[in-house]
Design a protein that fits this description.
Chain lengths: 513, 351
């Protein structure tokens, strides 16, 4: 592959050495460029230096729009397009961020009189990142810490394809192996397609079992260039195995032990409008809102598999600064609120919606409670419990309010805050109201009418009495890698069997309610 | 030998603990999804559960709390509502009135309380019925079991502590209306080994390794696990490998043709089974009561023999099959015994 790729132009392309820096460019030419951005301009040549392993076809996607001649292009247009192209190159993730240099020079070496149009030579200098990156480290996710080793092969076929192979073990993840091959679609860094294979084994002590997962997925993720909203569509096929039950495992968990295959399509959406930059600490947004939505269709019709349902989750959170009369600058005090809800609706395996359906399994149902969602409850502490096991529910709603106060003397510019919070939620399972085959064996099936009747009653049960609630006060440390919380809380309202927590609770995570 | 059959399924070697434990009752192994590395770890987990994880979440800091603070703590939560009801799938998992025996069975058979298709499960199912214990059965998998193998029994709610197969004998003596006594004879152990080795190996070979019974194997074990063809294929492969390893463990069926690689010689396996059946028939012929060792009522040993003879006759009654061997053993003593046990266990409708 050529060391320099060149575009457009009707003259031969100069060598690499012909471009040595802006100071080499004729000063009067530069002057002409910046004098009048409305002056007509065309691109004479575009060159890219340093993209040794990158395929021409990938670069075409980025540079074609740049050189495509539009009759009335102005200098300003050209400069804007150069900026767009540079940004795209950078977002491909295969070039070093600090290596970008763009040179624009007047194509005519000797300016002869007033030009009709300015012809420009444009040169990009980049350095490719190393093609193999090996890493190891520790990670903090929601309520879990883990250690990993990671190998990344970049730009494998020259089209910005990345292969990532990852092995990890953690506090709950006994082992996880993951390989993903991802590439931009049609050279657009904002749309990526990925193939992923994974195998993992995770301990779930709140329900006395371990879940082994083997599966693969195909995913297309894209980001809207204009507003930053991100979307993804995933098809996945996963073999789940519930095994290694603890001796005290409940009948519900024992009933769901074994194998199941889930084939599903998932769509997810994120709109993150949290303002992280105007506040004193980037990790503590001062204002704005965040919307997350997820919708999954499993097993229905052509999808097949052992489970069939639709599952929808929605999350909203917002925060705003609290102005205090008399304090000039932003006080650093914020009030925030969050709300989450989810619904799992059993579907038939057949096409259509009228067939009989199976109630949900424990590995598909929602869990609620824990230091990162409803604080003041144990992990999976809310909802139906069988013999101490959190068996999950099919419908939930949870919400919370909090107030962040800077610590006196430490100040608003530190990532430490005092937090006052109150939160609560309700997690309800779908029951089989139609007293069907009690007695000897068999996984019961429900008719579509029984499901819709039971779902209505489950949804109405959400508002039955106060939600299970807790309130408290704590310390927050908002580190860029994760947020740490140490809270003291007391449960206000609980259901029998739910596991509230009186006293101190530590929370480590990324995504808090 | 009996000790080994009845005793805890505690593996002694770390290389193949799971396998031994998994298939010991003639049932399929716990299919591990191809996760070889987890076999040793899994069995260790079964025995030493992650109590530490549980403890750390359930027992927070304990230091002396001043009395007023304690009183304050005690007043929370301010409101306690009734428990949230369990999900729909929890309903059939246990019963409020009768204990539940988790076995390998089809859903239709389970509803009727019909005999399980797994020899280990059928032995205990038969024995509990002979002992007059009231229970229902639920189709399940080895993953659900506290020991890694079915069967096990869950008492009626609210007691949900599982009773593994090793303790079912004691349970039957305590809860049965007519618990049979165990014959005490030195020969019991010797005859037990006939069930554990030749008969069990023949059953394993016929069901798992003989391609003629692939559809039976699928009906029994892979189809209930998943509707997915590739999961079924993966499980079938695991089951076959485990069964072969299990048979080879006895070491006496190596095919002469295969130098270097261990291949099971089916002829030897079936010949061993024929000899064992003849020996059992001869033993039964000595008895005047119609039950082994001259017992007044059928014992656990009768249930153990019945578990194999019933399944062999019911599912492998074809030309030269194991069922034919059962019927042809001695003067048909085993066939008569099979019918008597069906009668005694109140399975009159079964053949």
């Amino acid at each position: 592959m050529a060391d320099a790729a060149s575009y457009g132009g009707n003259t031969a392309v100069g060598g690499v050495s012909s471009h040595e820096g802006p100071e080499q460019v004729d000063p009067s030419g530069l002057q002409a460029i910046f004098d009048n951005t409305l002056a007509p301009a065309t691109i004479h040549t575009v060159e890219l230096h340093g993209a040794k392993y990158t395929r021409r076809s990938l670069l075409d996607y980025i540079f074609k729009p740049l050189v495509e001649s539009s009759p009335n292009a102005t200098l300003g247009d050209v400069v804007a397009r150069v900026g767009t192209a540079q940004s795209k190159l950078s977002r491909l993730g295969i070039f070093k961020d600090d290596s970008f240099q763009v040179f624009i020079s007047d194509a005519r070496k000797s300016p002869a009189g007033q030009p009709e149009t300015t012809e420009l030579d444009i040169a990009f200098n980049v350095k490719e990142k190393s093609r193999l990156a090996l890493g190891a480290g520790t990670d903090i996710g929601n309520t879990e810490g883990s250690a990993y080793t990671n190998a990344e092969l970049r730009n494998i076929f020259g089209g910005a394809e990345t292969l990532t192979v990852n092995a990890r073990t953690g506090t709950r993840t006994r082992s996880a192996y993951n390989a993903a091959l991802s590439a931009p679609v049609l050279g657009n860094p904002d749309i990526r397609a990925a193939f992923e294979a994974q195998q993992s084994s995770t301990s779930k002590p709140w329900a006395s079992h371990e879940e082994n997962i083997t599966g693969g997925s195909v995913k297309v993720a894209w980001q809207q260039a204009d507003n930053g909203d991100s979307h993804s569509v995933t098809y996945s096929s996963v073999w789940r195995q519930l095994t290694n039950l603890l001796p005290g495992a409940s009948p519900t968990v024992r009933g769901d032990a074994g194998d199941s295959l889930k084939n599903s399509f998932t769509y997810s959406f994120t709109r993150d409008r949290l303002d992280r930059l105007s506040g004193p600490v980037p990790t503590l947004p001062q204002s704005g809102y965040l919307i997350r939505a997820m919708s999954e269709l499993a097993g229905w019709g052509f999808l097949k598999g052992d489970v069939a349902f639709s599952k929808t989750e929605l999350e909203l959170s917002t925060t705003r600064p609290l102005a205090i009369p008399g304090v000039k600058n932003t006080s650093g005090i914020t009030v925030g609120g969050g709300f989450r809800m989810g619904l799992l609706y059993p579907l038939p395996f057949s096409y259509g919606l009228s067939g009989p359906r199976s109630p949900s399994r424990i590995n598909d149902r929602f869990q609620l409670g824990g230091p990162t969602d409803v604080r003041g409850f144990k992990l999976g502490g809310l909802g139906p419990h069988d013999n101490g096991d959190a068996v999950g529910g099919d419908v939930y709603a949870a919400g919370g309010v909090n107030m962040m106060l800077p610590i006196p003397r430490v100040g608003a510019s530190s990532p430490l805050r005092i937090q006052l919070f109150a939160n609560g939620g309700r997690l309800v399972a779908l029951k089989n109201k139609g007293k069907s085959k009690e007695g000897e064996g068999g996984h019961l099936q429900m008719s579509s009418r029984a499901v819709s009747r039971s779902m209505r009653s489950a949804v109405s049960e959400l508002a039955d009495g106060l939600p299970s609630m807790a309130a408290g006060v704590g310390l927050v440390y908002a580190h860029p890698a994760a947020r740490f919380e140490l809270n003291f809380s007391l449960p206000l309202a609980v259901r029998k069997g739910e596991e509230g927590r009186k006293g101190l609770q530590v929370g480590v995570g990324i995504n808090f309610l | 030998m009996q000790k080994r059959e009845e005793g805890p399924t505690r593996p002694t070697s770390t290389s193949t603990p799971g396998r031994w434990l998994r298939i010991r009752n003639g049932g399929p192994p716990r299919h591990g999804g191809g996760r070889k590395l987890s076999a040793a770890r899994r069995s260790s987990i079964t025995r030493t559960p992650h109590k530490s994880t549980m403890a750390s979440t359930s027992a927070p800091w304990q230091w002396p709390v001043p009395r007023p603070l304690q009183q304050l703590f005690d007043s929370f939560p301010l409101v306690t509502y009734a428990a949230t009801e369990l999900p729909a799938r929890s309903q059939p998992a246990t019963s409020d009135s009768v204990p539940t025996l988790y076995v390998f069975a089809s859903e239709a058979d389970a509803r009727l309380g019909a005999p399980s298709f797994n020899p280990g499960c059928l032995k205990w199912q038969t024995f509990l019925r002979l002992a007059g214990v009231t229970f229902r059965i639920l189709p399940s998998t080895n993953h659900a079991s506290p020991t890694g193998a079915l069967p096990f029994l869950l008492p009626a709610r609210p007691n949900t502590t599982p009773i593994p197969a090793t303790k079912l004998h004691t349970y039957a003596l305590q809860h049965g209306t007519c618990p049979p006594s165990e014959p005490s004879t030195l020969r019991l152990d010797a005859y037990h080994s006939l069930l554990d080795l030749p008969l069990r190996n023949a059953w394993l070979h016929a069901l798992y390794l003989n391609p003629a019974h692939t559809s039976l194997l699928d009906t029994f074990y892979t189809a209930p696990a998943s509707s997915s063809p590739w999961i079924r294929d993966a499980l079938r492969l695991q089951l076959r490998r485990a069964a072969e390893a299990e048979i080879l463990k006895t070491g006496s069926y190596l095919s002469a043709a295969a130098a270097g690689t261990a291949v099971v010689d089916g002829k030897q396996v079936y010949e061993g089974a024929r000899e064992a059946l003849e020996a059992l028939a001869a033993l039964l012929a000595e008895s005047e009561t119609g039950w082994f060792f001259g017992a007044q009522r059928p014992t656990l040993f009768d249930a153990g023999v019945f578990a194999f003879t019933y399944l062999m006759v019911r599912y492998m009654d074809g030309e030269g099959g194991l069922g034919g061997m059962v019927k042809g053993a001695g003067d048909g003593e085993l066939e008569g015994h099979r019918r008597r046990v069906l009668e005694a266990a109140r399975w009159g409708g079964e053949k």
